Structure to design on (144 residues):
Protein backbone atom coordinates (compact mmCIF):
# COMPACT_ATOMS: atom_id res chain seq x y z
CA UNK A 1 0.00 0.00 0.00
CA UNK A 2 1.33 3.44 -0.88
CA UNK A 3 1.80 6.00 1.87
CA UNK A 4 -1.34 7.96 2.68
CA UNK A 5 -1.49 11.23 4.57
CA UNK A 6 -2.55 10.87 8.17
CA UNK A 7 -4.54 14.09 7.86
CA UNK A 8 -6.91 12.43 5.40
CA UNK A 9 -8.25 10.49 8.40
CA UNK A 10 -8.52 13.28 10.96
CA UNK A 11 -11.23 12.72 13.52
CA UNK A 12 -14.44 14.69 13.35
CA UNK A 13 -15.49 16.71 16.41
CA UNK A 14 -17.84 13.90 17.49
CA UNK A 15 -15.07 11.32 17.07
CA UNK A 16 -12.82 13.48 19.22
CA UNK A 17 -15.50 13.84 21.89
CA UNK A 18 -16.73 10.22 22.01
CA UNK A 19 -14.14 7.46 22.44
CA UNK A 20 -16.60 4.75 21.41
CA UNK A 21 -17.37 6.45 18.10
CA UNK A 22 -13.66 6.98 17.50
CA UNK A 23 -13.01 3.32 18.31
CA UNK A 24 -15.59 2.18 15.74
CA UNK A 25 -13.72 3.70 12.79
CA UNK A 26 -11.82 1.43 10.41
CA UNK A 27 -8.46 0.21 11.64
CA UNK A 28 -6.65 2.44 9.16
CA UNK A 29 -8.55 5.54 10.26
CA UNK A 30 -8.11 4.65 13.93
CA UNK A 31 -4.34 4.25 13.57
CA UNK A 32 -3.92 7.23 11.24
CA UNK A 33 -5.51 9.70 13.62
CA UNK A 34 -5.99 9.16 17.30
CA UNK A 35 -3.88 6.07 17.95
CA UNK A 36 -0.85 6.39 15.64
CA UNK A 37 1.44 6.61 18.66
CA UNK A 38 0.06 3.34 20.03
CA UNK A 39 0.68 1.65 16.66
CA UNK A 40 4.27 2.94 16.50
CA UNK A 41 5.21 1.67 19.96
CA UNK A 42 3.51 -1.69 19.30
CA UNK A 43 5.44 -2.00 16.03
CA UNK A 44 8.71 -1.47 17.88
CA UNK A 45 7.74 -4.00 20.55
CA UNK A 46 6.75 -6.52 17.86
CA UNK A 47 10.33 -6.68 16.55
CA UNK A 48 12.58 -6.60 19.62
CA UNK A 49 15.54 -7.85 17.57
CA UNK A 50 15.43 -4.72 15.35
CA UNK A 51 16.58 -1.22 16.36
CA UNK A 52 13.22 0.38 15.55
CA UNK A 53 12.98 4.04 16.44
CA UNK A 54 9.93 6.21 16.96
CA UNK A 55 9.55 9.40 14.91
CA UNK A 56 6.94 12.08 14.60
CA UNK A 57 5.75 14.61 12.06
CA UNK A 58 5.02 18.21 12.96
CA UNK A 59 4.46 21.44 11.09
CA UNK A 60 7.85 23.06 10.46
CA UNK A 61 8.91 25.07 13.48
CA UNK A 62 6.07 23.75 15.67
CA UNK A 63 6.69 21.66 18.79
CA UNK A 64 3.46 19.59 18.63
CA UNK A 65 3.74 16.28 16.82
CA UNK A 66 0.57 15.40 14.89
CA UNK A 67 1.54 11.97 13.57
CA UNK A 68 3.81 9.25 14.94
CA UNK A 69 5.39 6.31 13.15
CA UNK A 70 7.96 3.56 13.66
CA UNK A 71 11.24 3.89 11.77
CA UNK A 72 13.78 1.26 10.75
CA UNK A 73 16.66 1.75 8.31
CA UNK A 74 14.84 4.37 6.22
CA UNK A 75 11.51 2.50 6.31
CA UNK A 76 8.51 3.98 8.11
CA UNK A 77 5.58 2.03 9.50
CA UNK A 78 2.24 3.70 10.15
CA UNK A 79 -1.41 3.22 9.18
CA UNK A 80 -0.26 2.79 5.54
CA UNK A 81 2.05 -0.11 6.37
CA UNK A 82 5.76 -0.02 5.52
CA UNK A 83 6.89 2.76 3.18
CA UNK A 84 10.14 4.57 2.53
CA UNK A 85 10.30 7.41 5.04
CA UNK A 86 10.77 10.09 2.32
CA UNK A 87 7.54 8.88 0.68
CA UNK A 88 5.63 9.10 3.96
CA UNK A 89 6.97 12.61 4.61
CA UNK A 90 6.28 13.81 1.06
CA UNK A 91 2.72 12.49 1.14
CA UNK A 92 2.00 14.26 4.42
CA UNK A 93 3.71 17.48 3.29
CA UNK A 94 1.67 17.55 0.09
CA UNK A 95 -1.56 16.91 1.99
CA UNK A 96 -0.87 19.57 4.63
CA UNK A 97 0.31 22.09 2.03
CA UNK A 98 3.02 23.30 4.39
CA UNK A 99 6.57 22.29 5.24
CA UNK A 100 6.90 19.56 7.85
CA UNK A 101 9.66 18.38 10.14
CA UNK A 102 10.37 14.81 11.13
CA UNK A 103 11.65 14.42 14.67
CA UNK A 104 13.00 11.43 16.56
CA UNK A 105 11.07 10.65 19.71
CA UNK A 106 13.27 9.38 22.50
CA UNK A 107 10.71 9.52 25.30
CA UNK A 108 8.81 6.55 26.60
CA UNK A 109 5.19 6.13 25.53
CA UNK A 110 4.02 7.51 28.86
CA UNK A 111 6.28 10.57 28.60
CA UNK A 112 5.22 11.15 24.99
CA UNK A 113 1.54 10.98 25.93
CA UNK A 114 2.00 13.43 28.78
CA UNK A 115 4.01 15.91 26.70
CA UNK A 116 1.81 15.73 23.59
CA UNK A 117 -1.59 15.31 25.26
CA UNK A 118 -2.11 11.85 23.80
CA UNK A 119 -3.95 8.92 25.35
CA UNK A 120 -2.28 6.00 27.06
CA UNK A 121 -3.72 2.58 26.14
CA UNK A 122 -5.90 2.40 29.28
CA UNK A 123 -7.58 5.70 28.31
CA UNK A 124 -9.22 4.33 25.16
CA UNK A 125 -12.75 2.98 25.01
CA UNK A 126 -11.23 -0.51 24.74
CA UNK A 127 -7.66 -1.76 24.91
CA UNK A 128 -5.99 -0.72 21.60
CA UNK A 129 -2.92 -2.94 22.09
CA UNK A 130 -4.41 -6.19 20.68
CA UNK A 131 -5.88 -4.23 17.77
CA UNK A 132 -2.48 -2.65 17.09
CA UNK A 133 -0.66 -6.00 17.29
CA UNK A 134 -3.12 -7.46 14.78
CA UNK A 135 -2.64 -4.47 12.48
CA UNK A 136 1.16 -4.73 12.59
CA UNK A 137 0.96 -8.45 11.77
CA UNK A 138 -0.88 -7.71 8.50
CA UNK A 139 2.21 -6.09 6.96
CA UNK A 140 5.42 -7.80 5.90
CA UNK A 141 8.41 -5.86 7.23
CA UNK A 142 11.06 -4.77 4.69
CA UNK A 143 13.70 -7.14 6.11
CA UNK A 144 11.53 -10.27 5.64
Amino acid sequence: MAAEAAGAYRRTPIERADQRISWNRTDQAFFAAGACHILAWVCRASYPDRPIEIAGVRLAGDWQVFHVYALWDGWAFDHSGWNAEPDLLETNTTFEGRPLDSVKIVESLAEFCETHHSRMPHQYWQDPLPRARDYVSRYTPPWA
